């Protein structure tokens, strides 16, 4: 069996590799992230954090999607979601180089492209070497497996959180025990002492940002604010909870949403569709095309876990509850979608099947049945935001048009 | 009021003219070829000539099909899913489920009593199961496309065509010919392969009887027979299955005109 190993672990080299790979991407053009000030701040903060992870002095943890980063910040560890970073690379032509590397290394094209491109970036040695790899098993087990393999690539310690599917006292207590144990493991592996005062502050930042986030969601419920809705999703995808900067981003977004809403008529009627699944770059042709006809509300940003505030008195318990809420449990999934669908007075649902994503494809079947039973108009789109070999707009445009005609 | 519907498909471009009594005055079919704008113009002129009309007598042109947005003289364009639904509804208003197999995709469409689309599913990832597939297979077997239906009726059994890919299926068919499998059995196997995929598509939207089939492939009686056998129900076909999208587009023109 071939075992891949990253031999040159110097982050400066990896940084140069990354720059070379993305040579055509104009990262300095901040206006391409959109018109909102909040989007520009988020983009700059992201860029800063990514740059910091390439510094040899930084403590870096690869952290899975929606990992409770609040437990890392008290150790001054910088979380890096390598899957999100692959999505960032997908906005440049660099992704094709990374995907080519995976093919040259015998990785099947049927694998989820998010995972495959993360492999490609690692194989091209463009990620910064981690100090530690942290992972949770949601939203999919593939991410946990990817993290495990990355630990092998870089020969680094691997810590995993096993998040239960159902929310009850036993599952919360099971996860709280894991949090307490993992904090000791981080101390041991990084030689950094846990700082409770910092942790309290992090929880406070997390809640402050979340309160602005929730209030912004309420505005999008009442007014047509497409850019704000999209930015809510981007913030959720960035998983910045616990960072001081997240408070600034969410506060700015709320203020912008509030100012925009004053100029709008809440009775203005546009057809609304609920987008369930991953969101590609806002310039992705499906989004651009749909936005000409309907208002898109992104379910990902509106999940119960995103509306949940942490309890300062019992931070681990509330982190456990939030983590479980984030699990794509079928019953909660249906309940949450029904709730959002009704609250936002939607006209239909668009379900996105990302290439190779077993998780979404399984859920989308459930969602189709659920939509049919509830007389909800729906559309399923197969798409691949990263590998253009797996998708063409002309394939899906016809069904989008038919769906728009139906609603 | 006189309306024209033009359906610019991947293989053929169809047109139909309707008057305000919803009567089909004429219809026409041409190959799409490499220039769908040109094929739309050709069929438009053909259908006008067949109906004995000139352009100035046409009130509205509605286009559909993959090339629907590429016709300069179109007054409105509508997806072929809606057009097939309306077309079938005009001619057979009792129909509730439609299977449309065109040149490069297939669609299962569920409609209500007014011909509105309730739900639909499309297979457009591969030409296997579509008109293009039959065209390629007929070439591989050196038989005429329009003869496939009759040939399949002579089959003693159906050869198993397992592939879900047009190119691989062609290889499979060539291999079956090489080992001496009778052509009718191969053709019947091809039909069953297409119908098997189509029935899965129909079941995903939930089959509500009565069922009809539209699209060029519905002209193949071998396909209709296999479909009826597999669904164990009658499948209705109009006199103009290939032109249903164009008829539906012209009918939508009439509805807009109201």
UniProtKB/TrEMBL annotation, chain A:
Pfam families in the record: HGD-D
CC cofactor: [4Fe-4S] cluster
Bilayer-spanning residue ranges: none
Keyword Oxidoreductase: no
InterPro entries named in the record: FldB/FldC_alpha/beta
Single GO term (MF): iron-sulfur cluster binding
Keywords annotated in UniProt: Iron, Iron-sulfur, Metal-binding
The family this protein is said to belong to: Belongs to the FldB/FldC dehydratase alpha/beta subunit family.
Protein name: Benzoyl-CoA reductase/2-hydroxyglutaryl-CoA dehydratase subunit, BcrC/BadD/HgdB
Organism expressing this protein natively: Paramaledivibacter caminithermalis (strain DSM 15212 / CIP 107654 / DViRD3) (Clostridium caminithermale)
From TrEMBL, chain B:
Record InterPro entries: ATPase_BadF, ATPase_NBD, CoA_E_activase_dom, Dehydratase_Activator_Redct
Required cofactor names: [4Fe-4S] cluster
Molecular function terms from GO: iron-sulfur cluster binding; metal ion binding
Keywords, comma-separated and alphabetical: Iron, Iron-sulfur, Metal-binding
Matches recorded under CDD domains: ASKHA_NBD_BcrAD_BadFG_HgdC_HadI
Domain ATPase BadF/BadG/BcrA/BcrD type: 4-253
Protein name: Benzoyl-CoA reductase, bcr type, subunit A/benzoyl-CoA reductase, bcr type, subunit D,TIGR02261
Source species of the chain: Paramaledivibacter caminithermalis (strain DSM 15212 / CIP 107654 / DViRD3)
């Amino acid at each position: 069996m071939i075992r891949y190993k990253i031999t040159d672990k110097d982050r400066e080299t990896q940084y140069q590799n990354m720059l070379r790979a993305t040579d055509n991407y104009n990262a300095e053009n901040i206006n391409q992230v959109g018109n909102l000030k909040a989007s520009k701040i988020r983009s700059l903060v992201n860029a800063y954090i990514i740059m910091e992870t390439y510094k040899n002095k930084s403590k870096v943890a690869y952290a899975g999607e929606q990992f409770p980063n609040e437990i890392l910040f008290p150790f001054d560890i910088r979380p890096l979601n390598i899957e999100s970073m692959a999505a960032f690379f997908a906005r440049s032509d660099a992704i094709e180089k990374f995907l080519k590397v995976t093919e040259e290394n015998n990785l099947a094209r049927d694998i989820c492209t998010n995972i495959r491109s993360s492999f490609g970036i690692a194989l091209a040695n463009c990620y910064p070497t981690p100090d530690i790899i942290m992972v949770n098993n949601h939203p999919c087990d593939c991410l946990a497996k990817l993290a495990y393999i990355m630990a092998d690539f870089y020969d680094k310690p691997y810590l995993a959180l096993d998040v239960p599917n159902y929310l009850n006292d036993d599952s919360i207590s099971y996860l709280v025990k894991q949090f307490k144990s993992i904090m000791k493991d981080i101390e041991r592996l990084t030689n950094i002492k846990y700082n409770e005062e910092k942790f309290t502050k992090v929880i406070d930042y997390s809640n402050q940002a979340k309160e602005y986030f929730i209030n912004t969601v309420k505005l999008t419920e009442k007014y047509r604010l497409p850019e704000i809705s999209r930015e809510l999703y981007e913030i959720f995808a960035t998983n910045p909870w616990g960072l001081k900067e997240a408070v600034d981003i969410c506060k700015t977004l709320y203020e912008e949403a509030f100012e925009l809403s004053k100029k709008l008529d809440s009775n203005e009627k546009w057809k609304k569709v609920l987008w369930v699944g991953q969101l590609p770059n806002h310039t992705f042709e499906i989004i651009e095309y749909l936005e000409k006809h309907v208002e898109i509300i992104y379910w990902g940003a509106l999940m119960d876990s995103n509306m949940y505030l942490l309890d300062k008195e019992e931070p681990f318990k509330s982190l456990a509850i939030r983590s479980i809420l984030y699990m794509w449990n079928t019953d909660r999934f249906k309940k949450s979608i029904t709730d959002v669908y009704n609250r936002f007075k939607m006209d239909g649902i668009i379900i996105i099947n990302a290439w190779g994503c077993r998780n979404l494809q399984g859920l989308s079947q459930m969602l189709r049945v659920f939509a049919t039973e509830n007389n909800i108009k729906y559309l399923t789109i197969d798409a691949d935001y990263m590998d253009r070999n797996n998708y063409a707009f002309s394939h899906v445009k016809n069904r989008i048009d038919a769906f728009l005609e139906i609603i | 009021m006189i309306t024209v519907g033009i359906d610019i498909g991947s293989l053929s471009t169809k047109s139909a003219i309707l008057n305000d009594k919803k009567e089909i005055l004429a219809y026409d079919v041409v190959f799409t070829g490499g220039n769908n704008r040109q094929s739309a113009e050709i069929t438009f002129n053909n259908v006008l000539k067949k109906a004995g009309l000139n352009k100035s007598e046409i009130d509205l042109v509605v286009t559909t099909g993959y090339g629907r947005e590429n016709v300069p003289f179109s007054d409105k364009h509508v997806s072929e899913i809606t057009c097939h639904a309306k077309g079938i509804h005009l001619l057979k208003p009792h129909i509730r489920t439609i299977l449309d197999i065109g040149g490069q995709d297939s669609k299962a469409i569920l409609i209500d009593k007014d011909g509105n689309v309730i739900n639909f599913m499309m297979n457009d990832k591969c030409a296997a199961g579509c008109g293009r597939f039959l065209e390629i297979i007929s070439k591989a077997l050196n038989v005429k496309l329009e003869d496939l239906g009759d040939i399949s009726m002579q089959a003693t059994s159906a050869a198993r065509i397992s592939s879900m890919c047009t190119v691989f299926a062609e290889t499979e068919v060539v291999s079956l010919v090489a080992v001496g499998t009778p052509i009718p059995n191969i053709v019947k196997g091809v039909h069953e392969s297409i119908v098997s995929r189509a029935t899965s598509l129909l079941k995903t939207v939930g089959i509500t009887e009565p069922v009809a089939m539209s699209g060029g492939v519905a002209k193949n009686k071998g396909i209709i027979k296999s479909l009826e056998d597999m669904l164990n129900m009658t499948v209705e076909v109009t006199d103009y299955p290939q032109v249903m999208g164009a008829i539906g587009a012209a009918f939508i023109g009439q509805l807009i005109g109201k």
